[in-house]
């Protein structure tokens, strides 16, 4: 039983960064406006996420840790139009299978919170009262310590911490109205207060405006598709593939077709191989895109890829056109 849950867990939780992604999505689904993240030893020793979201009531705590239990979907029909980031009810159960997990939570209306401390692969013990502010605190301790095979595939703590930060950056980009504070090994390394989408992108994708790295606005619409965002200006173009962000309905995705379309637009306009920074947000009718792919994957399937490509290509071309002398 424990073995099966550990195998299943490996699919969702591959490394500390995948745990962070799931935990942040849960905090956002709970309506948090302030999220604090603590990463120790690349997240392998300890990951902690503190949010000020709506919390979990005492009677829901055991359910939150149960596989395939989700509070976000009530029927199969809901699956078609899911708007929450999570809906499989797998993440917490998977983490509890491969780490020691503590969960403390308090809805704002409750007098105090409740806490459970689950040993790796064991059943959750009864909840105990806990003095916590409204919201949720989740700690993932000694991730994969009981599954050395999994641990062997991980990189150094420094690299794992960098992967964690990549994930946090992506999520922060698509949630500018939420404050994120990141601590690494006891030190605060990032603080992004709630702000406008433009300012958040400038902070995370540009250089905050300091180096004159002007970002051009992109805005286009065609039928059920809209595209908004910012592109690096030609003169400020830096080949930084780690600063290229595409979001579909708020989710970070990698899409070769669209990456190629953007590169092509730059090439046509600038006659060079420059492929600079960007953060683009595509909004599309959810029924025209398949979101029900594997949770750890970052690809999407569009029902009409050509229409999406067309919009993105021309929007980028237009934005670059206005920047040319
Ligand atoms: P899913 O997000 O797919 O529902 P999870 O395993 O990630 O599954 O979480 C299980 C349940 O625990 C969620 O449906 C939600 O009710 C609750 N939960 C988890 N994290 C939080 C949080 N930070 N704040 C409030 N509720 C949470
Ligand atoms: Mg979830």
Automatic annotation (TrEMBL):
It comes from the Bacteria. Coiled coil: none annotated. Residues 201-321 form the DNA mismatch repair protein S5 domain. Belongs to the DNA mismatch repair MutL/HexB family. This protein is involved in the repair of mismatches in DNA. It is required for dam-dependent methyl-directed DNA mismatch repair. May act as a 'molecular matchmaker', a protein that promotes the formation of a stable complex between two or more DNA-binding proteins in an ATP-dependent manner without itself being part of a final effector complex. This is DNA mismatch repair protein MutL. It comes from Lautropia dentalis. The gene is mutL.
């Amino acid at each position: 039983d424990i073995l099966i849950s550990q195998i299943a867990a490996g699919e969702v939780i591959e490394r500390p960064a995948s745990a962070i992604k799931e935990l942040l999505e849960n905090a956002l689904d709970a309506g948090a406006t302030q999220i604090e993240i603590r990463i120790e030893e690349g997240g392998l020793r300890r990951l902690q996420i503190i949010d000020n979201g709506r919390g979990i009531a005492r009677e829901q705590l055991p359910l939150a840790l149960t596989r395939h239990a989700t509070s976000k979907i009530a029927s199969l029909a809901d699956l078609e139009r899911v708007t929450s980031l999570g809906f499989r009810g797998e993440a917490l159960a998977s983490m509890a299978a491969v780490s020691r997990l503590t969960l403390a939570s308090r809805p704002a209306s409750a007098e105090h919170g409740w806490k459970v401390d689950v040993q790796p692969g064991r059943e959750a013990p009864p909840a105990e009262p806990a003095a916590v502010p409204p919201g949720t605190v989740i700690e993932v301790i000694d991730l994969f310590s009981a599954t050395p095979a999994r641990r062997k595939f991980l990189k150094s703590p420094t690299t794992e911490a960098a992967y964690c930060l990549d994930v946090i950056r992506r999520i922060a980009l698509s949630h500018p109205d939420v404050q994120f504070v990141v601590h690494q090994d006891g030190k605060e390394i990032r603080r992004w207060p709630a702000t406008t989408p433009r300012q958040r992108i400038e902070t995370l994708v540009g250089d905050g405006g300091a180096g004159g790295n002007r970002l051009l606005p992109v805005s286009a619409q065609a039928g059920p598709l809209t595209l908004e965002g910012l592109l690096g200006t030609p003169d400020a173009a830096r080949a930084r593939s780690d600063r290229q962000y595409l979001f579909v309905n708020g989710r970070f995705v990698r899409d070769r077709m669209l990456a190629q379309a953007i590169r092509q637009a730059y090439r046509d306009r600038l006659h060079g191989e420059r492929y600079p920074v960007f953060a683009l947000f595509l909004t599309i009718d959810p029924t025209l895109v398949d979101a029900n792919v594997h949770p750890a994957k970052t690809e999407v399937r569009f029902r009409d890829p050509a229409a999406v490509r067309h919009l993105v290509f021309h929007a980028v071309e237009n934005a670059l056109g206005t920047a040319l002398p």
